[in-house]
Give the backbone structure.
Amino acid sequence: MELLTTDKVAKSFGGIQAVRDFTMHIDEGEVIGLIGPNGAGKTTAFNLLTGVYRPTSGTITFAGKSVVGKKPYEITAVGIARTFQNIRLFGDLTVLENVKIACNLHAHYSLAEAVLRVGRYAREEEEIEQRSRELLSLFGLGAKADEYARNLPYGEQRRLEIARALATRPRLLLLDEPAAGMNPQETAELTKLIRRLRDEFELSILLIEHDMGLVMDLCERIYVLDYGKVLATGSPEEIRSNPDVIRAYLGAEV
């Protein structure tokens, strides 16, 4: 069953067309790769899917409904979460507080209940605390719940950002270069973690990644962007042997 569909999506910045004729689909439970040379439009595509940018033209449909024109927080609320190429944690908050903030997206208590600490506030805050600690435990961060996020090593900050995204209860998780800056052992652990998340949380996952080993090992289908347009799509085997893809990456005739 198709979860996300884009049809002929384009985005222009003045006279520069960053994305053009971007058409793709993601089925429920799939892990999809989005790859391409630097400047191909991958992060712009993510920004279009998450409401940071509004398409110049084209349609984006999630779970059968258009999300074009929705704000980022509205798109998060319907079930699309993301991480960023450059980690964007709340460095001056604790590890636990970073996750609790995301959990609050689904809190139902009113402002008055929060100020007076009555009604649904106590019950829901207890549930949020429990869920946040469970997520931190899953990511191996339970013992660091009370540390400031800025003090975590790089690899743990990456894991915390994914945990925070999962706290919003997404159906589709967008990962923007999750293995950036990781050593081979950390990348192997990340690959196992992404598979586990897909299975345990029944997620669909779309990832941008330059580590071709991770992409080929993890993804069931791959889309290749070049100059903002889909150059090729297919299985890892098909993409690996596609002359157009090789040409785009190497900049030379095969």
